[in-house]
Amino acid sequence: SIGSGTIIDSDGTILTCAHVVVDFQGLSSSSKGRVDVTLQDGRTFEGTVVNADLHSDIAIVRIKSKTPLPTAKLGSSTKLRPGDWVVAMGCPLSLQNTITAGIVSCVDRKSSDLGLGGMRREYLQTDCAINAGNSGGPLVNVDGEVVGVNIMKVLAADGLSFAVPIDSVSKIIEHFKKNGRVVRPWLGLKMLDLNDMIVAQLKEKDGTFPSVNKGVLVPMVTPGSPADRAGFHPGDVVVEFEGRPVGSIKEIIEIMNDKVGKPLKAVVKRANDNSVTLTVVPEEANPDM
Questions:
Q1: Which residue ranges does UniProt annotate as crossing the membrane (predicted)?
Q2: Which of 19, 136, 148, 283 lies at a CB distance of 3.0 to 4.6 Å from 163, suitable for a disulfide?
């Protein structure tokens, strides 16, 4: 397969897509596979797949160059807003050094919105033209900073392209450096972000619903999961996690980071504003979940 990549370190570290460099059929994500790498100046190298995470579709490839290589500057995806101009770079259909322009359509498109299974992911949605060969290439802002990694498009539609936000990619790279893989804690909770309007609607339906301004609702608890063992119940509203107020699933995920097997304290509100402190010990998520 043909894909694109970005040199992020002068030692020859290249950021790309896992599906470009790893055979999903048989090759394990820890495999040190070999890939052919062609630089913009025409030089060719044999690259080694150092790390690959199939769930996020992010991989790191390394090449050995006798001279330091030019590197791309990483920006911040959290600063992006819908309507911001972005440029997708890559080699669609083997046409090297192709750029296409567009705008950010959505900054937090959920994987579930796209019908993708597995654990929750968020993507940048753009209307840049993306084709086979663009995968793994950078999404760049008007300051020339990498803000995402282009990974897919909707085949049956125009102007629906998706990239992994660079802030998520940076965390994945940290995991690679620390653990050699991405460690994802699993609680066994289905969660839903609350806002004033949703809370008002829920209180209308059930007068005993807790009076909260923000929090994360638990509609379902997986039987036998860490959350089930900790005493979570459907209908709980998580208002505090590890001593920090929380108002979104994203915040809970950030606090958990890679804390597997470590007790974490959660404060939940229940019917009639009863407050309960629970201790949950996350397990490592099955990558196939």
A1: none
A2: 148
The answer on pLDDT for 100 being more than 60 is: yes
**Nearest-angstrom CA–CA distance, 161 and 152:** 6
- Say which of 56, 77, 105, 135 is annotated catalytic: 135
57 is an active site residue: yes
Has residue 141 been placed in a domain?
Answer: yes
Please state the separation of Cα 237 from the chain's center in Å.
24
> Which is nearest to 103 in space by CA: 132, 139, 69?
139
Q: What is the pLDDT of residues 227-256, one digit of tens each?
A: 999 999 999 999 999 999 999 998 999 999
How confident is the model at residue 110, as a pLDDT? Answer: 84
**Could you tell me the two tokens for 275?**
């407050």
Model confidence, pTM: 0.82
Domain that holds residue 231: 185-284
Of 57, 77, 161, 236, catalytic? 57
Please list the alpha-helical segments (H only) found in 28-77.
none
- Domains: count for the chain: 3
| 26: three-class secondary structure by DSSP | coil
- DSSP H or E run through 179: helix 166-179
Asked if residue 276 has pLDDT above 80, the reply is yes
Residue from 19, 53, 56, 105 carrying the catalytic annotation = 19
On whether residue 52 sits in a domain, the answer given is yes
Is 19 part of the annotated catalytic residue set? yes
| 161 counts as catalytic | no
